[in-house]
Specification:
Blueprint: H1 2-27, H2 35-47, H3 51-66, H4 73-89, H5 93-106, H6 119-138, H7 160-164, H8 168-195, H9 208-244, E1 252-257, E2 267-272
Antiparallel strand pairs: 1-2
Helix pairs in contact: 2-3, 3-4, 4-5, 5-6, 8-9
Length: 273
């Protein structure tokens, strides 16, 4: 009798531990399915007659595409086509045509196989394909893109264009360099003017030949190169300002209808912010 009591107690204590382990396993987070695996699962439910469940799963895949997930084209097109197929079979031909058009806008030559899709789906897809191709054939050739010229203020000196474009670091760099070169050039010019004085005797005790030699050395060897450097920095500032000038980029966003039976009226947002 004592032996059986011990065995029963062992079972009683072991059972909760097993249940606890199972609970821990159930609570572990599951990794989301890859696009390919999720597509195969949705197709499996669709072919098994679970059309509404497949529609929701394919809608989730469509959202992943709209949000920018990188997926091979054949898989992304297949997922969207099956979603449109379900809408068409449910009698929502308008939504189906919109979904088919998403594929054909990206690949106007895309074809459906009658061996993989119902004949009515292939026919409706073909009508949308013909419409897209007619629109492409009637589109005028767009004129070549010509960017607007940079405004005149980009040619101003002393870092003004950089400050105007809210680039203070570059503005200080160009402005400070130009101010320093301008002050140096002006100082050298005044120094040469004092060196060329006609006072006799010369304040520095230079003879006329020595005065001319030193003035020419300072003028051509220092003052002129500094002046040319000032204009060189000015040109570099102008080129920099033109290169960074951009028109204001307006926010572009659009509401994307996400068809789901379990969440009617759902919307998503996509665009450039």
């Amino acid at each position: 009798m004592l032996t059986w009591i011990l065995i029963l107690c062992g079972v009683a204590f072991a059972a909760p531990e097993g249940r606890t382990q199972g609970a821990h396993t159930a609570l572990e987070p599951q990794q989301p399915l890859s696009f390919a695996d999720a597509l195969e699962l949705a197709k499996k439910h669709y072919f098994a007659g679970e059309r509404e469940r497949a529609k929701n799963e394919l809608s989730d895949l469509q959202v992943r595409l709209l949000m920018g997930e990188e997926v091979p084209w054949d898989r992304s097109a297949e997922a969207v086509v099956y979603l449109g197929e379900i809408f068409l079979l449910d009698g929502e031909s308008g939504k189906a045509r919109e979904i088919f058009r998403w594929v054909l806008d990206r690949d106007p030559e895309y074809l459906l196989s009658p061996y993989a899709h119902p004949i009515e789906v292939v026919g409706e897809f073909g009508l949308v394909r013909e419409q897209v191709q007619r629109e492409i054939a009637n589109q005028p050739i767009p004129p070549p893109f010509r960017p607007e010229p940079a405004p005149a203020w980009t040619a101003l000196p002393l870092g003004i264009p950089q400050f105007a474009a809210q680039r203070p670091v570059q503005g200080i760099l160009y402005g400070g360099t130009q101010l320093g070169l301008a002050a140096t050039s002006a100082g050298l010019f005044l120094s040469i003017d004092r060196l060329n004085t006609n006072a006799k005797p010369h304040p520095l005790g230079l003879s006329p030949d020595q005065m001319a030699a030193r003035a020419n050395l300072q003028r051509f060897g220092v003052q002129w190169p500094v002046t040319m450097a000032f204009y060189g920095v000015w040109i570099a500032s102008w080129v920099d300002a033109r290169g960074h000038w951009r028109e204001d980029q307006k926010v572009q966003a659009e509401l994307i209808w996400i068809p789901r039976s379990d969440a009617p009226g759902s919307f998503g947002v996509a665009g450039r912010f």
